[in-house]
Design goal:
The protein is 5% helix and 29% strand. The chain has 111 residues and is mainly beta. The chain is globular and about 35 Å long.
């Protein structure tokens, strides 16, 4: 693990050339990183790639493309949040720039 890595967040089983992030549904505008990622690091996501703009912890989301303020954040093909500000491609998508919409679509999750 790199020196900046957070304890228990760097997966030692990661091997160079493996997929770096996973898209859980083709509709998703985010991918979930499969290891801790350094700023400016290039990631392999399916057939394409993206350069991380920030440090992104294991299991967090990265923007697959530019996400404008107000756009829904889609994960599992479902809205999980709304962008509080513009999120550039490769940006860390988390609580600092996303507001939850779980309460807005709670009924949909239980039908």
């Amino acid at each position: 693990c790199p020196a900046w890595s957070t304890v228990n967040l760097c997966r030692k089983s990661y091997r160079k050339g493996a997929m770096d992030a996973i898209v859980l549904n083709p509709k998703d505008n985010v991918a979930v990183v499969l290891r801790e990622v350094a700023p400016r690091e290039s990631l392999q996501i399916g057939e394409g790639g993206v350069a991380a703009l920030d440090r992104i912890p294991y299991g967090h989301k990265i923007a697959r493309h530019d996400i404008p303020q107000g756009e829904l954040i889609l994960k599992y093909g479902m809205p999980v949040g709304r962008a509080k500000s513009d999120i550039p491609r490769g940006g860390h998508v988390h609580m600092h720039n996303v507001v939850s919409v779980y309460m807005d679509n709670l009924q949909e999750h239980y039908e």
